[in-house]
Write a structure and sequence with these properties.
This protein is α+β, with helices and mostly antiparallel strands and about 240 residues long. It is built from 6 helices and 11 strands.
Length: about 240
């Protein structure tokens, strides 16, 4: 998702190099600008969908399962799953119930990583949440304890694409933001958003984390059209 014109051939090459699929992947550009991705087998397709979001040149490449008979307008291309880290949660409150409650304040929780990089929850809780990328990024969540004490918990997004430090919208830029003039007129030199919304480099990669034990997938009703389709395509 980017307002700039994308070099599709370059994007195809980059994505193929990142995916390491067992069989060949083909890209078909449709008339409305949507790209149909044809995988060689179901295993490759499932793995790439599970590892979303994918980025090209710091922009989102939304990838969704193709559903036979579904109209293009019915796909929610603005809803994307991200692995999110929630920091500053009191240690005694680090449990599954709190992880789900905190995640619901951000979006739809689809998975919980039961351990951080040290083998247990200590520094942060890690959850996979579907968020609306057309809305400003959530920066914090407020957690209220049993005694009424409130904790401000910070959020960091793994694989976060380029976003605007003024409005917090993914795909927007600080240079072209509609609120730039308003921001300058108030002489406000402090941005509401920043690079601190990304985890520090050097931690475990998303692909490696997804292969570990400890990922709990929250059950969800399967779209029967997608389940019976059995195709190897995404879009």
């Amino acid at each position: 998702m980017s307002g700039e014109k994308v070099n599709r051939e370059a994007m195809y090459r980059v994505l193929k190099s990142l995916w390491f699929t067992k069989e060949e992947v083909n890209f078909v550009a449709l008339n409305d600008g949507t790209i149909l991705v044809k995988f060689g087998n179901i295993e490759d397709r499932t793995r790439m969908l599970n590892l979303t979001p994918w980025l090209f040149d710091q922009s989102l490449f939304p990838l969704f399962p193709f559903v036979k008979g579904q109209e293009m307008d019915d796909y929610e291309f603005n809803i994307m799953p991200f692995w999110i880290r929630i920091y500053n949660i009191p240690f005694e409150q680090m449990d599954r119930e709190v992880a789900i409650d905190v995640g619901k304040a951000i979006g739809e929780v689809v998975a919980i990583d039961c351990h951080d990089k040290n083998g247990r929850w200590t520094e942060y809780i890690r959850i996979r949440v579907k968020i609306d990328v057309l809305r400003p990024l959530r920066r914090v969540v407020h957690l209220v304890g049993s005694e009424g004490t409130e904790t401000v918990c910070t959020i960091k997004y793994e694989r976060l694409p380029a976003f605007c430090y003024i409005c917090g919208l993914i795909g927007d830029t600080t240079q072209k933001c509609n609120r730039k003039e308003e921001h300058l007129e108030t002489n406000n030199l402090n941005f509401q958003y920043g690079s601190w919304l990304r985890p520090q480099l050097g931690g475990p990669t998303q692909a490696r984390c997804n292969r570990r034990n400890g990922i709990a997938i929250l059950e969800k009703k399967i779209n029967p059209r997608e389940e019976t389709n059995g195709n190897k395509e995404g879009m």
